[in-house]
UniProtKB/TrEMBL annotation:
InterPro entries: Copper_transport_ATOX1-like (IPR051881), HMA_dom (IPR006121), HMA_dom_sf (IPR036163). This is Cytosolic copper metallochaperone. Belongs to the ATX1 family. PANTHER family: COPPER TRANSPORT PROTEIN ATOX1 (PTHR46365:SF1). Transmembrane segments: none annotated. Gene3D superfamilies: 3.30.70.100. Keywords: Chaperone, Copper, Copper transport, Ion transport, Metal-binding, Transport. Residues 1-65 form the HMA domain. It comes from the Eukaryota. SUPFAM superfamilies: HMA, heavy metal-associated domain (SSF55008).
Length: 69
């Protein structure tokens, strides 16, 4: 399983909720953590690519990028 980290601009609970819903509905996500406080999202998946997950997060309308490790 691979862990991916993203910086996501979220200003409220609704924002983090939208990202949470998108990741919950994304087939192949094994585990994830959405932190409104740190503006970070961590996702674990064995089948999805970093870009597939990033696209799903961006579809929520949030500004997101791959976090620098």
């Amino acid at each position: 399983m691979t862990q991916y980290k993203y910086d996501v601009t979220m200003s409220c609970g609704g924002c983090s909720g939208a990202v949470t819903k998108a990741l919950t509905n994304l087939e192949g996500v094994e585990k994830f953590d959405v932190s409104l406080e740190s503006q970070k999202v961590t996702v674990e998946s064995a089948t999805l690519s970093e870009s597939d997950i990033l696209a799903a997060i961006q579809k929520t309308g949030k500004t997101a990028k791959v976090a620098e490790q």
